[in-house]
């Protein structure tokens, strides 16, 4: 078989689906990843859930740890991480510190995930 | 002032808000944390967003990496993490591998976050 008669198999191009909206920018991805990192620990999720499960989505620090099998310093550390990620805010009243969910923060992440589910326009994190 | 006349300041108890729903169980928290861990990397979020931003929420592996400044082996690693977390599924067609968002996985996380925002009943992960 001569070189000339070798069959040429064309490389099939992939079918590129068009972009229907702008993907996350690198800066937005860094910011959003830090929030997900705060949520990526089972103890932090339990603490957050413990607060969110109470009326008014607020709990005294003395109640938050019920059912969570870690020491008080560890709980304090995890609450600080959640607060620094903007998911919780705290307030001292008399002798006690109360923690409360920041609904806007949770709703924002939920909206972004929804946009990634339905393909609707996502609210890129500010 | 005699001992007897020292004023006694009662320790004020905290105001415990009642539970309005069951918090996450430890097992559910472990499972959910692993999904958030998959989402806690900026490059993974950019890849996921790149797929979700295309029509049909599906993209060829050759298109996913556009605008993401990492090597192909690193992209492959991150896509595997997202797939193992149940957030993506992949399919080979002809010479190309296509990745697509698993909408149920994203919607489930979004529902859980919504429940933590509004205080409505959360769907505890199965």
TrEMBL record, chains A, B:
Gene3D superfamilies: Winged helix-like DNA-binding domain superfamily/Winged helix DNA-binding domain (1.10.10.10). It holds the Pfam family HTH_5. Residues 24-121 form the HTH arsR-type domain. InterPro entries: ArsR-like_HTH, ArsR_HTH, HTH_ArsR_DNA-bd_dom, HTH_MetalResp_TranReg, WH-like_DNA-bd_sf, WH_DNA-bd_sf. The keyword Hydrolase does not apply. Keywords: DNA-binding, Transcription, Transcription regulation. This is ArsR/SmtB family transcription factor. It comes from Nocardia jiangsuensis.
